[in-house]
Amino acid sequence: MAGRGAGPDFVESLARGLDILACFGTDHRTMTLTEVATAADLARPTARRLLLTLEELGYVTSSDGSFALTPKVLGLGIAYVSGLGLWDIARPHMERLVAQTGESSSMAQLDGSDIVYVARVSVPKIIALRVEIGTRFPSLQTSQGKVLLAALSVEELERTLEQPSRAGLPRYIGRSRAQLDAELVEVRARGWALADEELAPGVRSVAVPVRDGTGTVRAAMNVTVHAAETTTEHLLQHHLPLLMRSAGDVSAEWALWQARPHVEVERPAEGSG
């Protein structure tokens, strides 16, 4: 991974530190120094210095030769989502949608050529893929990804698709570029996208856009079902209208939230009149 920066101001040491944080996950909650060095493609001495720095900053803890992330890491992502004001607005609508459909609902945004989950309300069902906040998937294989890709300009789409996925999954090769472009045109025209067992067997989902106050698509919201339990027809005829209504309500409230008057007042010093 070293040497990947193209700009003169690229800080390789910072990038390596972020690589180390990204190594941990559901399947790798604790890792040894050797495992971290291998996963981040770093020399052991470099990985050790970075881990000790992250530990001193409070992002990593160590015990018996193994390292693990601390809850402080959550602040890096929560600060982003909280800054948008999106989760607080979306949560009651997503909870209501899940109660109406009996299925899980998630919200995701684009990060390179992947989608990253930024909000989720789930139901306890056995499904092929485990999804949590921060989970990333290749955008081409998901309904949310298709919605977000369809909202890009031609130039933005080219730049996005040129970026390699960091989701750790093979990129879906189930369509030609011409077929992809045609599908995105259709998604853009109808306002929703379907992914039918493209990400994993048994996983079927439909997604719609979530817009900000300018009308720009900033996120995508979905309903996910198990293909053996829910037909495509039921997903589109019953769940999709409820999803579209929920996403529309989220977009409208988000627009109002962004338009709110907001002034920060400096707190007077103690003892002042």
Question: What can you see in these coordinates?
Answer:
With 273 residues, the protein is α+β, with helices and mostly antiparallel strands. The protein folds into two domains: 58 residues, Winged helix-like DNA-binding domain superfamily/Winged helix DNA-binding domain (Arc Repressor Mutant, subunit A), CATH 1.10.10.10; 183 residues, Beta-Lactamase. Helices cover 43% and strands 19% of the residues. The chain has a six-stranded antiparallel beta sheet with strand order 6-5-4-9-8-7. Strand 2 and strand 3 form a beta hairpin. Helix 1 packs across helix 3 and helix 5 packs antiparallel against helix 9. The longest helix is centred in the C-terminal third of the chain and has 27 residues. The protein is globular, with a radius of gyration of 21 Å. The mean pLDDT is 86.
